[in-house]
Amino acid sequence: MQVVFTNSRRKEDRDHxxxxxxxxxxxxxDELIARDARGRALENSKYKVLTTKDRxxxxxxxxxxYFHAGRFSQGARDYLAVEAYKTYQKRESLGNSx
Length: 98
What we know:
Blueprint: H1 11-44, H2 52-73, H3 79-96
Helix pairs in contact: 2-3
């Protein structure tokens, strides 16, 4: 009697792992298709797709607005503080009227 050692898996195991990898590949393909569809829908809509740089710019702009509006509330009456406070008041009144 001869014993043969192999590193190969049984045929059933190989078939099962192929099915799993095919399922994972199909799932990844579906996710890529869905992401592409969402991207195209956003591009075709009236909304702008924000990049990370755009978000940082908006955050910086809001920080400056709140800083200068806060200066106005503390007593500063220079042009920048007054305009920032007016803008702040408009933004707040629009946000509260919804």
